[in-house]
Every structure is written in structure tokens, then in C-alpha cells.
Design goal:
The complex is a heterodimer of chains A (about 80) and B (about 260).
Chain A lengths: L1 H9 L3 H18 L3 H18 L8 E7 L2 E7 L8
Antiparallel strand pairs in A: 1-2
Chain B lengths: L2 E6 L7 H14 L4 E5 L7 H5 L9 H5 L5 H4 L1 E2 L6 E4 L12 H14 L2 E5 L6 H8 L3 E6 L3 H16 L4 E8 L1 H5 L6 H8 L2 E7 L2 H8 L4 H4 L3 H13 L7 H12 L8
Parallel strand pairs in B: 1-5, 1-6, 2-4, 2-5, 6-7, 7-8
Antiparallel strand pairs in B: 3-4
Classes of the chains: A alpha+beta (about 80), B alpha/beta (about 260).
Adenosine-5'-diphosphate (ADP) binds next to helix 1, strand 7 and helix 10 of chain B.
Chain lengths: ~80, ~260
């Protein structure tokens, strides 16, 4: 209860922050992919998508996450509406 | 034929040696014959944690090199039946033994003891490879912190690659900190590492106090950490372990006169 109220004002608890960081760190460790390399990959993928559909290349998101020993790579991008 | 269990963690200072000493003592108290092997060659500690440092004559490297028989290198713990220590060498380094040496040493010890507990050095290099070589199973010790869990995950991967099944002990949990939202809980750690859990040891001043005296906490009996070590030892040995909640309700039932067993 108190924790709930505290988090409402101060953002996440340090416990939640630790959990989030661990999910990320372990995903990188297990895949052998450093955070910086992941961003390079993001830029390349964004460029490929932009060849086919209009997108905001900066808004392409890449995520690597691990849940219970399996690791998931997700790329998401919203497509800009065509101005007809 | 006994079981060889390596106590490992990747990171140093998380409680491997403490866990080895206490689980070994608890298993011996349960009537099993136990030998503790200090595989931290060059940085031996298990002898002082057990309070047996003044009785060392031979060590693990002597036994491997045939300078003495294995049985001769074992130090008998006189505080109870069934417990022995095979100390590490303090003057050699980790390259003094090979995984093959360790494999045959542990194999021989399993012939004469129910449990061979191997205290693994920190790291994932030669010392780690030596320590896991003869092990049938592993206990991974982690504290509820990002760095420890990260290292534990590395070790879990290496153990899986070596076909050594692993279970988890979370050490130094503080219920207060978890409640305040400032520490990962045991279920957080299980979720992240996806390992079977053997138990969680609380952060307990008594562990530090008894270790100062060279007495495993389990021998002094009363602390919360000691009780949890004993529960984990029973679980390791395959005894039925009463979950905490059942104990409480049984006591409550007894207090209310609902128990089937006569008071
Ligand atoms: N549950 C606990 N509560 C309090 N102190 C602990 C606990 N477990 C370990 N310690 C202390 O932490 C330190 C490191 O433990 P140790 O077993 O030597 O770690 P490792 O063998 O992994 O390097 C020691 O001083 C020990 O007494
Ligand atoms: Mg140690």
C-alpha cells in the first residue's frame, strides 16, 4: 500500500527498475549482442523499411527481451499515413 | 554411490562458502556422511569458515599428486559424526589441477560418502571448470542484486552446456527491503533466472557472528538463516519438507485443539 503510494509519486521502485534492467542485460548477454550493436542494427532495419513504406526512421523501435530463458527480438515501426 | 554437488555463483562474496559449510553440516546432522571439498585453490576459505584451519596437514593437491592418500588428506570434524573437509592448497594456483584430476578425485570420494559438496571459486575460468568437472548437480547461489543475478545467469548457461542440472538458492534476502520495494524478491529472481528454487536465506547477523568463531550457523541452531539451511538440506536429501504455512496452520490447529496427534 505504502509502496504503491510512494511509487505513484516517485516513479518505479528500485526493485522494478532492477527487474527491468536485468531483463535487458540478460537478453544482451544471452544473445551476445551489445547495446550499441543493437542500435546499429536498428538504423539498418529502419533504412530497409523506409525503402518500401513511408516511415519516420527515428521512430523505429527495436527491443530485445528475455522471459524465462527464451529471448525475443522485436522491431516495431508505425507507418506514416499517405497524404493523398 | 554418493552425489557430488557443486556450489557455484560466478560472482564472489555472495555466499558460496557459507552455503557449502552450512548445508554440509546440516546434511551430516541428518545422518548422512558428507565430505566438503574446497576447490578454491590458492584462496582457501572453507577451512576457516568451518574452524578447522589448525588441523590441516595435507590438501587436495597433495592427494591428487599422490603425495598422500585421499583418505589421509581428509580432516574429520570432531563436533559431529559423518563430516569431513578436504582443504584446498594455499600455495598452488588453479592450474595445479585439471578437470580430469578433479573428476577422478570426486569419483573416489563418492564411493565412501553420501554427499560430496564442492565449494567453487568465483569466476568462470579454470577454477570453475575444475570445480564442476566431477559434479552430478549444481546449486547456484545468487544475491538479489543485478550484478549477482547476471553472473548467475552466465553460470547457469555454462552448467547447462556441461549437462549439470542446477537449482537456485537466493542468499541475503531482506524481507524489509523487499517490502519497501528496494530489493528483488525471491520470486523475482526465480522468474528472471527460470531455475528451480531450493530456498532463500535471509540476511542474518548470526551468520557473520558464528562465522567469526569458525562455527557454521547451523551448529548454533537457532537463527533464521540456520533454519532455512536445514530446510534446504532436507530438500536436497529428498526428505519431505513442511512448507512454512503448513507449520503455522498445524500449530494453530494444535492450539485450537484440532490436531489429530495427542498433545
Ligand atoms: N545470509 C547471510 N547473512 C549475512 N551474511 C552473510 C550471509 N551469507 C554470507 N554472508 C557473509 O558474506 C560474506 C561472503 O560470504 P562467502 O560465503 O565467503 O561468499 P563466497 O564464498 O561466495 O565468496 C561472508 O562474510 C559471510 O559471512
Ligand atoms: Mg568462497
Amino acid at each position: 500500500m505504502w509502496t504503491g503510494i510512494k511509487n505513484l509519486f516517485s516513479g518505479k521502485s528500485s526493485r522494478d527498475v532492477a527487474k527491468g534492467r536485468l531483463h535487458l542485460v540478460l537478453a544482451h548477454d544471452r544473445s551476445g549482442l551489445e547495446g550499441g550493436r543493437l542500435q546499429e542494427m536498428r538504423a539498418e532495419i529502419a533504412a530497409v523499411i523506409a525503402k518500401y513504406v513511408p516511415i519516420d526512421a527515428e521512430a523505429v523501435e527495436i527491443q530485445i527481451e528475455t522471459r524465462s530463458r527464451s529471448t525475443q527480438l522485436t522491431v516495431s515501426s508505425s507507418i506514416q499515413p499517405r497524404n493523398v | 554411490m554418493g552425489r557430488a554437488i557443486v556450489i557455484t555463483s560466478g560472482k564472489g562474496g555472495v555466499g558460496k562458502t557459507t552455503t557449502t559449510a552450512n548445508l554440509g553440516t546440516a546434511l551430516a546432522q541428518l545422518g548422512h556422511s558428507v565430505v566438503l571439498v574446497d576447490a578454491d585453490i590458492g584462496l582457501r576459505n572453507l577451512d576457516v569458515v568451518m574452524g578447522l584451519e589448525n588441523r590441516i596437514v595435507y590438501h587436495v593437491v597433495d592427494a591428487i599428486r599422490g603425495k598422500c592418500s585421499i583418505q589421509k588428506a581428509l580432516i574429520k570434524d570432531r563436533r559431529m559424526d559423518n563430516l569431513w573437509l578436504l582443504p584446498a592448497s594455499q600455495t598452488d594456483d588453479k592450474d595445479a589441477v585439471t578437470p580430469d584430476d578433479m573428476r577422478s578425485l570426486i569419483f573416489e570420494l563418492k564411493a565412501t560418502h553420501d554427499f560430496v559438496l564442492i565449494d567453487c571459486p568465483a569466476g568462470i575460468e579454470q577454477g570453475f571448470k575444475n570445480a564442476i568437472a566431477g559434479a552430478d548437480e549444481a546449486v547456484v547461489v545468487a544475491t538479489p542484486e543485478v550484478s549477482s543475478i547476471r553472473d548467475a545467469d552466465r553460470v547457469v548457461g555454462l552448467l547447462a552446456a556441461a549437462d549439470v542440472p542446477a537449482r537456485l538458492i537466493v542468499n541475503r534476502i531482506s524481507a524489509n527491503l523487499v517490502r519497501r520495494g528496494d530489493m528483488l524478491s525471491q520470486s523475482d529472481v526465480i522468474e528472471i533466472l527460470a531455475l528451480e528454487m531450493l530456498g532463500a536465506i535471509p540476511l542474518d547477523d548470526q551468520v557473520i557472528a558464528t562465522t567469526n568463531k569458525g562455527v557454521p550457523a547451523v551448529l548454533e541452531g537457532k537463527s533464521v538463516a540456520a533454519k532455512e539451511f536445514i530446510r534446504i538440506a532436507k530438500r536436497l536429501a529428498g526428505h519431505e519438507v513442511e512448507p512454512e504455512a503448513v507449520g503455522f496452520f498445524t500449530r494453530l490447529g494444535r492450539a485450537l485443539g484440532l490436531s489429530a496427534t495427542p498433545a
